[in-house]
Specification:
Order of helices and strands: HHHHHHHHHHHHHHHHHHHH
Family: Belongs to the annexin family.
Helix content: over 70%
Largest sheet: none
GO molecular function: calcium ion binding; calcium-dependent phospholipid binding; phosphatidylserine binding
Strand content: under 5%
CATH superfamily of one domain: Annexin
CATH architecture of one domain: Orthogonal Bundle
Shape: elongated
Pfam families: Annexin
InterPro entries: Annexin (IPR001464), Annexin_repeat (IPR018502), Annexin_repeat_CS (IPR018252), Annexin_sf (IPR037104)
Number of strands: 0
CATH topology of one domain: Annexin V, domain 1
Keywords: Annexin, Calcium, Calcium/phospholipid-binding, Repeat
Length: 320
């Protein structure tokens, strides 16, 4: 199946950066802040347009727009707005860095960001990360993870995956499916190295074919095999790759559901996915969420959030 990503945020037309800069300045000047104006302007523009507004704002007022926003806003609402102001790849790098800072590592965040990217996207993240933090991403990640999970992420980060311009090879897919079967279900124990190699090297279109061949060969889905053969973070990473190969929207819908299900809300994940996918496939994710969970993503977000934070997220989601 061909994945058709539909965003919720697109370029605004007509677009007047100077007018937007004036509106934002007026919204933050004097006593009080007009949060609704800030949401209307920044959510209603694409990231590229926000960068233009930021440059015009600085030129016209000799002030840094992001610093002004940080001074005026607070809490989770600030996290959303400041996230929107960052170029997309920088935003993901910041999230990766935060997931490895301090005590403990948020493996789920590493999986969500790294296992879902094509080789082309990964190359951008690696370059910007090192530029921003003066340390290679692979090096930092190696110090924060271990075992076969570390090995898989290292392979992904070092860019061994075939590019999207690599032709799909049906004969090779049969061979790769057979290798996966021999490394897992067909033997006692699991040869994780084989799983790591194929899951990190093959392009997503190639893997789609491999998974079809696997089912043909073994009578089981690759998901069933991974469930039997893997555990903990490696299991999560493998499943993320499989889900993204089949439907990125379903993977992110699932992550959003988990972020809001049960006691408390994982706001960091909620914000990260809605902000980072808004110009990629958030509309598609909304449709998948409703299909899988029989309720709208909009209604789930409204139930879990409040105030300006809720207004910003629902504005990014677009029409309910």
């Amino acid at each position: 199946m061909d994945y058709k990503p539909v965003p919720t945020v697109k370029d605004a037309a007509p677009f007047d950066a100077s007018q937007d800069a004036q509106v934002l300045r007026a919204a933050m000047k004097g006593f009080g802040t007009d949060e609704q104006e800030i949401i209307a302007v920044l959510v209603g523009r694409s990231n590229q347009q926000r960068q233009t507004i930021k440059a015009v704002y600085e030129a016209e007022f000799e002030r840094d727009l992001v610093d002004d926003l940080k001074d005026e806003l607070g809490g989770k609402f600030e996290d959303v707005i400041v996230g929107l102001m960052m170029p997309p790849v920088e935003y993901l790098c910041k999230q990766l860095h935060a997931s490895m800072a301090g005590i403990g590592t948020e493996e789920a965040t590493l999986v969500e960001i790294l296992c879902t990217k094509t080789n082309e996207e990964m190359a951008q993240i690696v370059a910007i990360y090192e530029e921003r933090y003066q340390r290679p991403l692979a090096e930092q990640m190696c110090s924060e993870t271990s075992g076969f999970f570390r090995r898989l992420l290292t392979l992904i980060v070092t860019g061994v995956r075939d590019g999207l311009d690599t032709p799909v090879d049906a004969d090779q897919a049969k061979e790769q499916a057979a290798q996966l079967y021999s490394a897992g279900e067909a033997k006692l124990g699991t040869d994780e190295e084989v799983f790591n190699r194929i899951m990190s090297h093959a392009s997503f279109p190639q893997l789609r074919l491999v998974f079809e061949e696997y089912k043909e060969l073994s009578g089981q889905t690759i998901e069933q095999a991974i469930k039997h053969e893997m555990s903990d973070e490696l299991h999560e990473a493998m499943m993320a790759i499989v889900e993204c190969v089949q439907s990125p929207a379903a993977f992110f819908a699932n992550r959003l559901y988990k972020a809001m299900n049960g006691a408390g809300t994982d706001d960091a994940t909620l914000i990260r996915i809605i902000v980072s996918r808004s110009e990629i496939d958030l509309e598609t994710i909304k449709q998948e969420f409703e299909r899988i969970y029989n309720r709208t993503l909009h209604s789930a977000v409204v139930a879990e959030t409040s105030g300006d934070y809720k207004q910003a997220l629902t504005a990014l989601l677009g029409s309910a």
